[in-house]
Design a protein that fits this description.
There is one protein chain. Helix content is 35%, strand content 24%. The protein is built from 14 helices and 21 strands. Strand 19 and strand 20 form a beta hairpin. Bound molecules: flavin-adenine dinucleotide (FAD).
Length: 427
Amino acid sequence: MFDVIIIGGGAAGFFTAIQIAEQNSDLKVAILERGKTVLAKVKVSGGGRCNVTHAEFNPADLVLNYPRGEKELLGPFHTFCTGDTMAFFEERGVPLKIEEDGRIFPQSDSSQSIIDCFINETERLGIKVMKLCPVSNISYAVTDNPDLGFLVTTPKKEFQTKKVVVATGSNPKIWNLLEGLGHTIIPPVPSLFTFNIKDSRITDIPGVSTTARVTVFASKSNTTELSSKIKTAVRKKPLLEAEGPLLITHWGMSGPAILKLSAWGATLLHSKNYQFVVQVNWLPDMVPGAVLEYLSSVKETDPKKTILRTKILDIPRRLWVNLVKAADIDETVKWAGATKTQLQNLADQLTESEFSVNGKSTFKEEFVTAGGIDLKEVNFKTYESKIAKNLYFAGEVINVDAITGGFNFQNAWTGGFMAAQAISKLG
Ligand SMILES: Cc1cc2nc3c(=O)[nH]c(=O)nc-3n(C[C@H](O)[C@H](O)[C@H](O)COP(=O)(O)OP(=O)(O)OC[C@H]3O[C@@H](n4cnc5c(N)ncnc54)[C@H](O)[C@@H]3O)c2cc1C
């Protein structure tokens, strides 16, 4: 018989257990983990370095990094935010460092520091961690009387507990089980992926990185029935847009701008079976009309130089060469000899290059699943289910996910803290 059973020995499960035991040492707490090892994702996270959180300390700005959960997380972040995460680890002997882009890692650059911290804390606080305990059922001990606790079933044993915290990440079996208890599950789809693109403008330049604006418009096929005027208007209205560093890879495009788009468009791009067109503006700081004007002015200032060899704008040289070629300008054409059409083509390539995406690849440093327990069914003051009393959630099991950068773990820490606060008070 336990006071609290936490299902799932991942980031959210461990953090919740530690917070409960810390806040109320009278409670008997156990973690049930289906695998042989606990904290497996923490181990591989951030390329083995574990990006624990992000240096964004204002809750109102922090929530902007969550395509799903933005509204719901605002209150919880006012209670437990990124600074609290930093304090938690540093007070427990894990010094952290903030990198230039805001990502926060252990100074050791090893996720093992985070794992050791969690394991030491569970031992110190007397939390029972049971491995190879896959939970196959959760039910009230006495039907229709949630105050008499739960029965939690595993193949070897049945456990009794007053409260249950589900922290199983994106596990379909547990979602099915929760559906059985009356919850709605938003269908899971992958988030945080890179785009597969085969295109002569980028195939020979992997490793090139630059700032760009990437846009997905309504596809042509969706507008075939419409008049050309409406079609243009529909095409002009972006469905998704993101700006930031874009990295050209052997397979296509990656980098923060692409990952952001993949997170915000997780459901939409899944519905398109990852076949869509992106428009890339390689000069996001310039007004599109101004680019043509500028190119025309170079005709006057540098008439004798060849276009291919004069990189006049702030984009990587090898990309400039490929875009010039794509604009039908061969290597002998000088600025003075460029036709109006060639300059227009070049301006279009620089600000409105279209690329066909044909599939996605996993971003190895971090990925998550969008979908999970419907946010409407969770009380975000306590992380208790609104459907089943004494049942709580933390982490990726809920329909919350974020862009890359430490925000996904922050969701696990904040949810764990909120659930623990509610449970330990009631305890
Ligand atoms: C490769 C990779 C790298 C990442 N890097 C980062 C990063 O650097 N920073 C960041 O913020 N986010 C990162 N993420 C995302 C982050 O790992 C997740 O958001 C986070 O782990 C979610 O925590 P969780 O506890 O909710 O789920 P999980 O970590 O998935 O833990 C769930 C646990 O529940 C267990 N479980 C499932 N079903 C059962 C069952 N029936 N019975 C018992 N146990 C069960 C699982 O075995 C697992 O141990 C990364 C993800 C991946 C895949």
